[in-house]
TrEMBL record:
The keyword Translocase does not apply. It comes from Actinoplanes hulinensis. The keyword Ubl conjugation does not apply. SUPFAM superfamilies: FAD/NAD(P)-binding domain. Pfam families: Pyr_redox_3 (PF13738). It comes from the Bacteria. This is NAD(P)/FAD-dependent oxidoreductase. Keywords: Oxidoreductase.
Amino acid sequence: MTSVDLVVIGGGQSGLATAHVAARGGLRPLVLDASAGPGGSWPAYYDSLTLFSPARFSALPGRPFPGDPDRYPVRDEVVDYLAAYTAALDADVRFGARVQQVTFADGGFVVSTTDGGVVRAPSVVAATGGFGTPFRPALPGLESFTGRVLHAAEYRNADGLAGSRVVVVGGGNSAVQIAAELARVATVSITTRGPLRFQRQRILGRDFHWWLARTGLDASRWGPRLVSGTVPVIDDGRYRAAISDGRPDHRPLPQRFDGGRVVWSDGTTEQVDVVVLATGYRPDLPYLAGTGAVDEAGVPLHDGEMSTVLPGLGFVGLERQRSFASATLRGVGRDAEFVLDRVLRRVGRHAAAAR
Ligand code: FAD
């Protein structure tokens, strides 16, 4: 069985930032990623995805995002950036390596992959993302809806949807972006439980992220505790304008779906072709099942950095793990620094004990 100092599970931005900080600290981590190549989930996001943060606030540690720092990079630029980051990394990165199970015994971890590989390590960082499992809420009647139901994770572009009647469920950035894109070729309603919340992209001539960094709110552990609830839609004005033009229109959640029809909150009904669920994601950590490190819902038990159950198990990239920015390109490196600080101490103790 091979032994390494640190296994990083996931080679998306979270795993890469973790591996970079680990290598800088003198470790040679092993990164195991189930995908065929670099980029994490970015290659699978919808075609028109444009970052909500400018390039200067979208970089991982040690490598600036190339090009004009004030532009908003598109999806494929992020994929290219992550591929270049992977190539430059001083770590052993293995693609096509899906971790099946992590076990903890005698103070260390054994990590097994679906292709039969087994690695032992004193420390493991789970960096498979907070967005691995699409969340599909149980909306009344949706299970027997006869039209097409798509999660935002499956949506790529408007191809094949021109002229359709579409209901988008959800009020976050993806919901509004997808609804506005579809509304150019289809009749679209965006439906939410409460009001849509918007955040102006620019305030007093500066991008919103400049203010987040300047005030310290972005990095603050208090941020997620002070401001709870849904994430606002970051908007340069175009989404509010589209919605006030009714393209898409905004309505309360429907009462129910009935066959191929939607029953709106005012009791009116109409035929619908497609329902898009932009209803978020949950963490994807099935390889920790049975270790006690996740609860019955698969949610990890942690103190913002490390597992509160298994010594030596860290997490990077969970939503609101330490701050608002934990699951973003701009914030994940900062969290990786905190996690690695504790991992390095553990690996050091482990090495000293072995001498
Ligand atoms: P992922 O990119 O999901 O990578 C996880 C990796 O783990 C994958 O490569 C996967 O193959 C691998 N993996 C999973 N399970 C296993 C396993 N068992 N064994 C081995 N490997 C495994 N953030 C921003 O900063 N700006 C944005 O504009 C922005 N837009 C977003 C838009 C959408 C639609 C979504 C969903 C998220 C967005 N985010 C954005 C948030 C975040 O930056 C991305 O979700 C990002 O992909 C998260 O990176 P990650 O490395 O944590 O996870």
